[in-house]
Amino acid sequence: MKKKVYVSESNIKDAGRGVFASVDIRKGEVIEICPILIFSDKDNTNVLKTKLQSYVYEYGKNGSMFALGFGSLYNHQNQANAKYELMEHQGLPEQNNELYITALKAISKNEEILINYGNNFYNN
Fold this sequence. Notes:
With about 120 residues, this protein is mainly beta. It has a single domain (about 5-115), classed as Beta Complex (Beta-clip-like), CATH 2.170.270. Helix content is about 5%, strand content about 40%. The protein has one helix spanning about 40-45; strands at about 5-10, 15-20, 30-40, 55-60, 65, 75, 80-85, 100-105, 110-115. The strands form 2 sheets. A 5-stranded antiparallel sheet has the order 4-5-3-8-7. A 4-stranded mixed sheet has the order 1-2-9-6, with no helix packed on it. A hairpin with a 7-residue loop joins strand 1 and strand 2 (about 15-20). The mean pLDDT is about 90.
């Protein structure tokens, strides 16, 4: 199976690396299913003092999560071409939850895949 994504330098100023489509992706297609690591409230306080703070998602009231695979490397754009959604698996420990990255519209090969980090994100 061919990978749908690869990492390369983003064209967004000061963004660093980003995630790009290695194939054409259809609207509604799942791009990636990312396992997650959950940081507790206590751990999150320490995580936010490190470089990891730029790569974690909010989780619960005071926690955070790190998405494995390429999940924590997607860059932000208000008018995103993809979305993320936490999939919780009932009856399993929360560490078994996954982050789904799904195309909001058709994405062309070599186009950067961008998600909207949410209303609290201040860099557009």
